[in-house]
Amino acid sequence: LFMKQMDDLEDKRERDAEFTGESYTSKFVGMFKVPGSDSEIDKQDLRWRNFKRLPAEEMLLHIQTKVFPFLKQFEGGSKFTHAMSNAVFIMPKPSLLVEAIKIIEEIFVEIEKDASVGGQAFQDIQGDVYEMLLGEIASAGKNGQFRTPRHIIKLMNDLVRPQLGQRIADPACGTGGFLLGAYQYILTDLVRNENPEALKPDEDGFLRATVSATLNENLKNIVEESLFGYDIDTTMVRLGLMNLMMHGIDQPNIDYKDTLSKSYNEDAQFDIVLANPPFTGNIDKGDINENLKLGTTKTELLFIERIYTMLKMGGTAAVVVPQGVLFGSGKAFVEARKIMVEKSELKAVITMPSGVFKPYAGVSTAILLFTKGSETNNVWFYEMRQDGYDLDDKRKKNDKSDLQDIVTQYHSRSSTASTDEERENNYFSISKQEIVDNSYDLSLSNYRNEVYEEVTYEKPEVIFERLETIEDSIMKGIRELKELV
């Protein structure tokens, strides 16, 4: 899949260079020394378009001995090369390889259709395929990871609005979806300033630019130095690296690292942190970084503290948490919420319905937005009821969505606490003092004023009279049936 996308990307870069008159040296120019032998091969023979035409048995041997070693050395000395160092090509049969190539070609036909018809000109291809494979095995990954839907990623980017030059991180990045989302938002912002009429809403209502828009070499270098991802799963690191490389970032900063462990100490480094960290359980107490003071082994709480420490003063985080974090009464739960309310400005709590992460998980989640070093005055709450997709395992697209309303209402929210009447809506603001008085509880239902409609029931004698009428009618029907027998 990566080789197919890189072939297409190199082809586009060559055509763009020819059109603009700029010089560009393709990654497929020159000779490649085949490992374990004295022979060399023209790199053109390693391109997808060329090796896919080979007979099945010859193609399998060609990929095993030449294409895959080339792939492992694709960016010599880079994080990608390091991540690929112990990767093994394990496809056993020529017929399976032929079938895989056929499927990948079909996937790219769908991608083209998605771009032209659905307005999705910038796809998280690796993430989409990973999501499809997870769907095939109907379970989450071995470390409890499941992919954040791209419309939720777009929502979170529209809320934090990352800017060119800001350092952006994801401490549990998986396939790199949040970093890709931030990258796309930054490109969109550039287009918005230069050519706003070129932007059209996608199927989720978000304005997004294509990958190549306005991205010259200088801007590309700035973006490359802005995006940082970490994960403890080597497969995820490879997928994340490939994902960003497939979208034109030649040297992505994605590392194999446990950000909760003693080996990670990049504090106060980032302007924005976007994350949906795993919340499946516990970490070994002896492995926890000594700078994390919550006194718990629960990853969903430790990641809140880790994200806080990663942020620069004035830096903003948007993080997905299970809703249990909002109201858990244990000491570590309360302390985690105090970090956001007392040491930061907790800007928003957006609760999401339980179906958002189906089919991998049915847990109810929320998005928390907080800025390190600012002071909390009021916290804005929003209850998302619809995300534009059916809330069952199939997650079929529908026309009911709160996403654009969330963005609009968040950026125009009041600086004062809501009145009792305003608290009857699905969004409102609550004063910090009221939250403190409620033991830092962040449950939306704790602060909403529920409106109950008065229901008027008929008097018992009227109901009995109607039942007797129905009974008489039934008995009459039975008698008529008896006469026919």
Identify the notable features of this structure and list them briefly.
485 residues, alpha/beta, 17 helices, globular
Please tell me about this protein's structure.
The chain has 485 residues and is an alpha/beta fold. It has helices at residues 2-20, 48-51, 56-72, 79-84, 94-117, 125-137, 150-160, 177-194, 217-224, 234-245, 299-310, 324-327, 331-342, 403-411, 432-437, 444-447, 460-484; strands spanning 31-33, 40-42, 168-170, 227-231, 253-256, 270-275, 311-322, 344-352, 365-372, 378-383, 387-389, 397-401, 427-431. Helix 3 packs across helix 5, helix 7 packs across helix 8 and helix 11 (299-310) packs parallel to helix 13 (331-342). The chain is globular.
What structural class results from the helix and strand content? alpha/beta
How confident overall, as mean pLDDT?
Answer: 87
Number of β-strand runs: 13
Major sheet: size, sense and barrel closure? Answer: 9 strands, mixed
- Rg for CA atoms: 27 Å
Helix content: 40-55%
Low-confidence stretches: 137-143
- What letter string, H or E per element, gives the SSE order? HEEHHHHHHEHHEHEEHEHHEEEEEHEHHH
End-to-end separation in angstroms reads 72 Å
User: Looking across the biggest beta sheet, what order are the strands in?
Assistant: 5-4-3-6-7-9-8-10-13
Number of helices: 17
State the shape: globular
Strand content: 5-15%
